[in-house]
UniProtKB/TrEMBL annotation:
Listed name of the protein: ABC transporter permease
Family matches, as Pfam families: BPD_transp_1
Domain of life: Bacteria
Subcellular location: Cell membrane
Family: Belongs to the binding-protein-dependent transport system permease family.
């Protein structure tokens, strides 16, 4: 068996026998990412809905900043989070640096602008369609936002899945604030980078396969949500 074939076989072996270290890394990755995405949705969706629904002075400037934050390099996000959480930073007293909580904070900072910007576009398109009808019915601000979010729920779920995919693939920010500490803050992406540099290709490839499966699963979920939305629209 060739060298690559041997490595691939060993990688599948780690997955099939549910290697303890492999499962620990996967579960920590999922816990950190899911928590970060939920928090980012709780912050980003209302912001996106408000920006997509209302016009106010300075809105264009806010949108420019929000769109710029979507493309912010992850290492910059990690650096900012590090400065805030370090011992000399304003949140240093909490002792969160090099913990899973620090990685969650960094991912929230990274994903929230993406969710806010994408949901803003979804809500704005929907609000343009229903604005006159809602105004004629005298729908209040809160009720309007809630109605638009509910009506756009399938599209917003797609936005959340996109945020999950972005957070799951993150390396730079989480390695800066997490430190890639074994059994503490080691997640899939940082472990792949470390183990590849060490020559432990079996574990790196096993985690790469899991990430690929997750990516395929996310894309399948997005397509499923879109198909459901189309069926609902024509029901």
């Amino acid at each position: 068996m060739s060298g690559f074939g041997t490595v691939l076989w060993d990688a599948f072996g780690l997955i099939i026998r549910a290697d303890k270290d492999l499962l620990e890394i996967i579960f920590l990755s999922l816990r950190v990412t899911l928590t970060a995405v939920i928090i980012a949705c709780l912050i980003g969706l209302p912001i996106g809905a408000a920006l997509g629904t209302f016009r106010f002075p300075g809105r264009v400037a806010v949108l420019v900043v929000l769109n710029a934050l979507m493309g912010l390099p992850p290492v910059v996000v990690g650096l900012v989070a590090y400065l805030w959480l370090s011992a000399s930073g304003p949140l240093g007293v909490l002792g969160l640096l090099y913990t899973p909580t620090a990685m969650i904070i960094a991912q929230v900072m990274l994903v929230t602008p993406i969710i806010a910007a994408l949901s803003r576009q979804v809500i704005e398109d929907l609000n343009t369609e229903y604005a006159e009808q809602m105004e004629s019915l005298g729908v209040g601000i809160r009720q309007r936002i809630m109605a638009l979010i509910w009506d756009a729920r399938y599209s917003l779920l797609t936005v959340a899945l996109a945020g999950f995919g972005r957070a799951m693939a993150e390396v730079g920010a989480v390695i800066i604030v997490g430190g890639n500490i074994n059994h503490v803050t080691r997640v899939m992406t940082t472990t792949i980078a470390l183990e590849t540099s060490k020559g432990n290709l079996q574990l790196a490839l096993a985690l790469g396969i899991i990430l690929l499966v997750l990516a395929l699963g996310i894309n399948a979920a997005v397509m499923g949500v879109r198909a459901t939305a189309v069926r609902s629209a024509y029901a």
